[in-house]
Amino acid sequence: MSIAFVFPGQGAQAIGMGKELADSFPAAKAVFEEVNDALGEDLSDLIWNGDIAELTLTQNAQPALMATSLAAMKALESEGVTIDTASYVAGHSLGEYSALAAAGSLSIADAARLLRTRGKAMQEAVPVGEGAMAALLGLDFETATAVATEAAMGEVCQAANDNDPSQVVVSGHKDAVERAVELAKEKGAKRALLLPVSAPFHCALMEPAAKVMAQALAEVDLTAPAVPLVANVLAHDVTQPATIRSLLVDQVTGSVRWRESVQWMGEAGVTDVWEIGAGKALSGMIRRINKSITCRAVGSPDDVTGAVASLAE
């Protein structure tokens, strides 16, 4: 058995996430406290007792999802499942920061501060209402990319997330993305719909945010991860800190190559994937990409117990 630990991105957030972990595992509770201290605010109160609209704000959702993922990871570690149980780590967009913190490349405090900066910078890069994202369902990546190119008409419209064989997300100027939705339907998409997001992530319009992140990342200590990271923008493994730092900047404007990343892990011998943190969205994508990979969600105390037990089988 070869395991990869993967970490979810934006959209997985939910009020109450991680609360049972914090109540059951002191190591998990300590993660939320560390994130609170790093940000100088009680983010865990928002996560557990707040308003979903406020939690969904990019600058809150990003560090909150990382905190929940790392709480689950620390709960596993407290039960004897260390990071080197995994052959690889990977994360979807902001989940890449969770993966790096789990693998010891970034401190949890630095990851929290970087994600707060990243969330604000991505939100501020494009005025509200000027950008949009849309999910194109039932088109392969090549067709979806061609749709985005045709819809651009001098504006920005790019394939932002290559999630699985039947789901590609496009991002860019609102008018161009709306044209892409109509074009996708003409090209035979099962569904094409605008997403309820606050900014057009992972496209050229995010260049101001990439510059902010280049500066922020230059100021943090980043070491080689304990296990290789399968990077979003390369869809293969990396370990060199300088390369990882550069890729985290590229990731702001670049596509999340999730389908290819999962394909690469399968070809590298990965048989099992543990989705560590909130939700099960990545597990669904992985099953559609490679049906031979076994997926396990690790987001609750029972999940932790089950994951630990599975290693003894």
Textual characterization of the structure:
The chain is of the alpha/beta class and 313 residues long. The chain is 50% helix and 16% strand. It contains 14 helices and ten strands. The chain has helices at residues 19-24, 26-39, 43-49, 52-56, 58-78, 95-102, 108-124, 141-152, 174-186, 207-218, 241-253, 258-267, 281-289, 301-311; strands at residues 3-7, 86-91, 131-137, 157-164, 167-173, 191-194, 229-230, 237-238, 272-276, 294-298. Strand 9, helix 13 and strand 10 (294-298) form a beta-alpha-beta unit. Helix 10 (207-218) packs antiparallel against helix 11. The chain is globular, with a radius of gyration of 18 Å. The model has no long low-confidence stretch (mean pLDDT 96).
The SS-based structural class is alpha/beta
Kindly provide the radius of gyration, computed on alpha-carbon positions and rounded to a whole number of angstroms.
Answer: 18 Å
Q: Given the structure, what is the number of helices?
A: 14
Shape: globular
Short description:
The chain has 313 residues and is of the alpha/beta class. The protein has helices at 19-24, 26-39, 43-49, 52-56, 58-78, 95-102, 108-124, 141-152, 174-186, 207-218, 241-253, 258-267, 281-289, 301-311, and strands at residues 3-7, 86-91, 131-137, 157-164, 167-173, 191-194, 229-230, 237-238, 272-276, 294-298. 50% of the residues lie in helices and 16% in strands.
Write the layout of secondary structure elements.
Elements: E1 3-7, H1 19-24, H2 26-39, H3 43-49, H4 52-56, H5 58-78, E2 86-91, H6 95-102, H7 108-124, E3 131-137, H8 141-152, E4 157-164, E5 167-173, H9 174-186, E6 191-194, H10 207-218, E7 229-230, E8 237-238, H11 241-253, H12 258-267, E9 272-276, H13 281-289, E10 294-298, H14 301-311
Parallel strand pairs: 1-2, 1-9, 9-10
Antiparallel strand pairs: 3-5, 3-6, 4-5, 7-8
Helix pairs in contact: 2-5, 2-7, 5-6, 5-7, 7-10, 8-9, 10-11
